């Protein structure tokens, strides 16, 4: 299997170099104790078994592209994700990519289309499954040759359904357990993140807002819950069953956001978020903000977060949000 993955990675690199054309995005596409790390080089803490949790190293993580315009909210299954990435898309709006390893919820969505930046983010994982509604036509060859398993509606028909509470295209949902069978366990989260006690220092932080050109995320510390309550565009983020989305750690990662080779149907350029390289970040945990540096020298490796003096910076155990903020 790993040999197959290496072959696909080589093919993906060749395809990336070959694709040099622009295109139009298809609307509504259809195609606390001692520190532990995430499994890249060391063993992770075992994941308790339940009806939605698989054994450690049982398979790849599941990544799902999730719609995040007002018409798509409230979302379903977002609270069950281990990691949520927030990225900028056309028109300065935002879209989410949720990563599931410890637990597979009954349903996730609304599911929307993939972007070129997603392929770079997902190189951190070993042969991940990417569930998405489709993509810009010229981007599809890159996705097909990337070191991941693309899953779109129609491949596993009973894994997908249209909800009745929202208008299309904001009503496509995925049943992850019909697609994956079981969750792979936390050892599949090979992101480079470390979990453990907070470093000394930090600055008390009651609330932090990250702004995109046409979207904003606000994280407010709840001492009672020991979590950051999420609000998007000024509205508290809850799931369809009324559960508040409340990560234990929020990472504001400052990155380069540049133009890509792709455009939507209105001619807006699709931004490309560079997640390989290095830069600065703020890590929010335990009601405090910690200045950090991040480095990811190559796409196939995880992202390392350190304090300004170079020590590893631990995250609080629980859901992690990574917001890619333009530097």
Write a structural description.
With 327 residues, the protein is mainly beta. 11% of the residues lie in helices and 34% in strands. The protein has four helices and 21 strands. It has helices at residues 2-18, 116-122, 140-145, 176-180; strands spanning 24-25, 36-37, 62-66, 83-88, 94-100, 129-131, 149-151, 160-162, 172-174, 194-195, 203-204, 207-212, 215-222, 227-232, 235-236, 249-264, 269-274, 277-285, 288-296, 304-306, 320-326. The strands form four sheets. Strands 1, 3, 4, 5, 6, 7, 11, 16, 17, 18, 19, 20 and 21 form a 13-stranded mixed beta sheet that branches. The chain has a four-stranded antiparallel beta sheet with strand order 12-13-14-15, with no helix packed on it. A two-stranded antiparallel ribbon has the order 2-10. The N and C termini lie far apart (38 Å). Residues 1-34 and 37-57 have low confidence and may be disordered.
Present the secondary structure layout.
Blueprint: H1 2-18, E1 24-25, E2 36-37, E3 62-66, E4 83-88, E5 94-100, H2 116-122, E6 129-131, H3 140-145, E7 149-151, E8 160-162, E9 172-174, H4 176-180, E10 194-195, E11 203-204, E12 207-212, E13 215-222, E14 227-232, E15 235-236, E16 249-264, E17 269-274, E18 277-285, E19 288-296, E20 304-306, E21 320-326
Parallel strand pairs: 1-16, 3-6, 4-21, 6-7, 16-21
Antiparallel strand pairs: 2-10, 3-5, 4-5, 8-9, 11-19, 12-13, 13-14, 14-15, 16-17, 16-18, 18-19, 19-20
For the termini, the CA-CA separation is 38 Å
What is the H/E order? HEEEEEHEHEEEHEEEEEEEEEEEE
Please provide the count of β strands: 21
Our estimate of the beta-strand percent is: 25-35%
The gross shape turns out to be: globular
What is the arithmetic mean of pLDDT? 85
Tell me the number of helical segments per DSSP (H or I, 4 or more residues long).
4
- Helix percent band: 10-25%
Structural class: mainly beta
Low-pLDDT sequence parts: 1-34, 37-57
Radius of gyration: 18 Å
The biggest beta sheet reads: 13 strands, mixed
